[in-house]
Design brief:
- By secondary structure, the chain is of the alpha+beta class.
- Among the domains are: 21-128 and 638-706, no CATH class; 278-349; 381-469, no CATH class.
- 13% of the residues lie in helices and 31% in strands.
- The chain contains nine helices and 51 strands.
- The strands form 13 sheets. Strands 1, 2, 3, 4, 5, 6, 7 and 45 form an eight-stranded antiparallel sheet that branches. The chain has a six-stranded antiparallel sheet with strand order 11-12-13-14-15-16, covered by helices on one side. A six-stranded antiparallel sheet has the order 20-21-22-23-24-25, with no helix packed on it.
- β24 (316-320) and β25 form a beta hairpin.
- It is globular, with a radius of gyration of 28 Å.
């Protein structure tokens, strides 16, 4: 999960570039419906409210018939549910219901005929928006943002290095597991390859082709003397992560030094590493009193006025008088130096604007954090198995009456003597902690009381919208994958350290720090490990899901020392702005990244995003809903707008002209200064859902002008996203949905659950 650069929006852009022709066809506006001699052109909807997955909109329309060959312009209001696809960034409009229509200056009989046609036909046709178009329209609205409170923003340990360094994180004191038929033990509670030679008492770390050795687990040095047996174990453990890749053009541009062997720093408590390529070098940010460190991949600024350093970590700003000695203090978004908001969006530090409250980029990030990823779940086919390390053990959830299970990798809660489990953004419930489990049709309201101090805090962002005897309509907002709205910005993680479960199995909990989490306006949160492929293990039983939530982790921005030191995070940001989508990348052999948690399930999901699945097998059976015909592009400018009163305006050059229907002709008269368009009674809201978003009540040409700018921004966002579609960031798991069974035993003979590692 976001978020696109606004600079240089062309007012002539009227179409979005998409990865395939079908997607492009479905989201170019206006759309055209033809039936039995009647032609309806529907211009891009203008959102009036969005609550959960319910959207209320209006759209300008024009209608011609066999008898009425001159277009009759009007407005229609409609309610619908949205089905979102965060991978393709599209929004499908489902269950559309036309609730009202108005055709100014048209006689009542004709209005009734036109309205009846719209009410009957529009719900029968497929229509889609791009997510970027929806966000841009919401951006013109007074939006109520659901904020997270009481996040822990105390600074972790900040380590600054001026030479290539790798931070190795271990989740608390190391937990060792014996490797069968060897004299080695591996460290369970880390995603890195760390082993101990039990005979010699030495420790080894493998990062790609480089090995390190230590006598005390604290001080590490590079070595080429590694036992052959240990090399063999490492090769099997690292698996495909050790595969070499060709260097892309962007990487070539950012490589600073070849054959660099980074130093290692190991920590067992929350820490972050920032580093420069040599002694710090600073350059001015144009038009500000701010300097930025130019020889680093991290976000490091110097405020000249206060002589303080500012760093950006997991969406949070920290400041200090010293890079090396600290101390580092959290900076509340309201206290960010005023000059930060004037950092040019097209500058080298433009990426940080998403983390500066009040900027356009920060608002876009907040808006995206409110949009749910949706799915349709088959109640009969969705299954759940929960395993515990011993008998189920529960602890209280903060000061609430709820309890949660501590000795399982699942989020299991005990609420009012009934058990609920949120698994891959689907709620299940049971009379027993071990099942059998059925799909829930209602979420207990007390779920919203879960505090961020609890490791199951993220499940409060998973919702049930509706249900039938066969299916449940569900969704989650990015809070489920640890992206939280806080005081005008988006933060990653709660900032709390959650103690993992140590028993016969090791179950990790979500982390905030230690993996250089960055927000990118094009692709959302990504992890940058300070080193490229070859450092992280998966096939060796490493329980990666526990650390990085339901979606696993993103490979990040692919910078490090695999091909030399590379400033990949910032290079990726700029590559996203300048590159066109579809160019071959060095990661073309990797699985297609997915931002959709529902793609993790092997069964139970009938539909999510733009894909339909066999709920029994999890196999994709269709890419679109073929039960309804798709509207076609109308091949004309998307330049007609409706105000809240149903009056119609057309953009002509820099002016907006009022479109009037009269005497069978379309007259266009620009309102005089101060003149208000005619008014009408608004469509009844009595049967509508409560509004979470409220558009300002202004109307007329000024309203049309505002909506025009939102459309332009939406097009620009879509194009920027498509150009930056992941060329420099990959994620796991792939869209090939994995089995939900526990993994087979590792090489050592130990077994693990889907997100836990076996201890001995």
């Amino acid at each position: 999960m976001k978020n696109w650069n606004r600079i240089g929006i062309s007012l002539t852009i009227m179409a979005c570039f998409f990865a395939n022709a079908a997607a492009e066809e479905n989201i170019i506006w206006p759309r055209l419906i033809e039936k039995e001699g009647t032609t309806v052109i529907i211009y891009q909807p203008q959102v009036e409210s969005l609550s959960a997955n319910n959207m209320e909109s209006r759209a300008a329309v024009s209608v011609t018939t066999k008898e009425q060959t001159t277009p009759v312009f009007g407005a229609m209001w409609f309610d619908c549910q949205i089905s979102t696809d965060m991978d393709d960034r599209t929004v499908r409009l489902l269950n559309m219901e036309v609730t009202a229509a108005k055709f100014p200056d048209v006689n009542a009989d004709k209005i009734q005929t036109l309205s009846d046609f719209l009410e009957e036909e529009v719900p029968n046709w497929q229509m889609e928006l791009s997510l970027d178009q929806l966000l841009a329209d919401l951006d013109m609205t007074e939006v109520q943002i659901e904020l997270s409170g009481n996040l822990n923003n105390v600074a972790p340990e900040i380590i600054f290095a001026t030479s290539p360094t790798m931070l190795i994180m271990v989740d608390g004191d190391p937990l060792f597991e014996e490797l069968d038929k060897t004299n080695y033990e591996r460290v369970l509670n880390t995603p890195y390859f760390i082993v101990r030679d039990t005979k010699k008492g030495t420790y080894y770390i493998n990062g790609g082709k480089q090995w390190y050795v230590s006598d005390n687990f604290d001080t590490w040095k590079a070595t080429s003397k590694v036992p052959k047996k240990l090399k063999q174990i490492a090769e099997e453990a690292m698996g495909e992560e050790n595969e070499s890749t060709e260097t892309s053009a962007e990487e070539e541009e950012t490589i600073v030094e070849e054959d660099v062997i980074p130093a290692l720093v190991l920590r067992t408590s929350p820490a972050e590493l920032i580093q420069s390529d040599g002694e710090p070098e600073f350059e001015p940010v144009e038009g500000t009193s701010i300097l930025f460190m130019s020889n680093t991949a991290d976000d490091i600024l110097m405020n000249i006025d206060s002589q303080e350093y500012y760093i950006l970590v997991a969406g949070r700003w920290y400041s200090s008088k010293s890079l090396t000695d600290g101390p580092w203090a959290f900076v509340d978004p309201e206290n960010i130096p005023e000059g930060f908001s004037t950092i040019p969006a097209d500058s080298d530090m433009g990426s940080v604007r998403s983390s500066i409250a009040g900027t356009q980029e920060a608002r876009e990030a907040l808006l995206e954090n409110q949009i749910p990823q949706t799915a349709e779940v088959d109640r009969a086919e969705a299954k759940l198995e929960v395993s515990y390390d011993g008998k189920p053990k529960f602890e209280k959830v903060g000061d609430t009456q709820m309890k949660y299970a501590i000795n399982t990798d699942k989020s299991v809660l005990l609420i009012d003597k009934r058990y609920f489990c949120c698994d891959n953004a689907i709620w299940f419930e049971s009379d027993s902690p071990s099942g059998p489990w059925i799909v829930s049709t209602e979420v207990p309201g007390s779920i919203q009381e879960i505090p961020p101090e609890s490791p199951v805090y993220n499940v409060k962002y998973v919702y049930i919208y509706d249900s039938t005897p066969e299916v449940v309509y569900v969704g989650y907002t990015p809070g489920y994958v640890h992206s939280y709205s806080y005081r005008g910005c988006v933060y990653y993680g709660t900032g709390y350290y959650y103690r993992p479960w140590y028993g016969a199995y090791y179950y990790p909990r979500p982390v905030t720090y230690g993996y250089s989490v960055h927000w990118n306006p094009y692709t959302g949160w990504g992890f940058s490990f300070g080193a490229s492929y070859g450092w992280m293990t998966y096939g060796w039983g490493s329980p990666y899901r526990g650390w990085w939530g339901p979606t696993g982790y993103r490979y990040g921005y692919h910078y490090g020392y695999h091909h030399g030191y590379s400033r990949g995070y910032r290079a990726g940001y700029h590559a996203g702005r300048r590159s066109s989508y579809g160019r071959p990348t060095p990661y073309s052999h990797k699985p297609r990244p997915t931002n959709n948690v529902y793609n993790n399930r092997a069964q139970g999901v009938r539909r999510t995003g733009n894909n339909t699945y066999d709920a029994r097998t999890g196999n994709r059976v269709a890419s679109a809903d073929r039960s309804r015909p798709s509207t076609q592009p109308a091949n004309r400018p998307n330049n007609v707008y409706s105000d809240r009163n149903g009056n119609i305006y057309r953009k002509d050059g820099n002016d907006f002209s009022r479109v009037e229907n009269g005497s069978g002709a379309s007259r266009e008269n620009r309102p005089s200064k101060g003149q208000q368009p005619s008014t009408r009674q608004q469509p009844s809201q009595s049967n509508r859902s409560s509004n979470s978003y409220t558009r300002p009540g202004s109307s007329g040409a000024s309203n049309a002008s505002r909506d025009y700018h939102s459309r332009s921004q939406g097009v620009a966002r879509s194009q920027q996203y498509q150009r930056s579609k992941p060329q420099y960031q990959q994620s796991r798991p792939s869209t090939t949905r994995p089995s939900t069974r526990s993994a087979s035993p590792s090489r050592s003979g130990s077994s693990r659950s889907s997100a836990g590692a076996r201890r001995r």
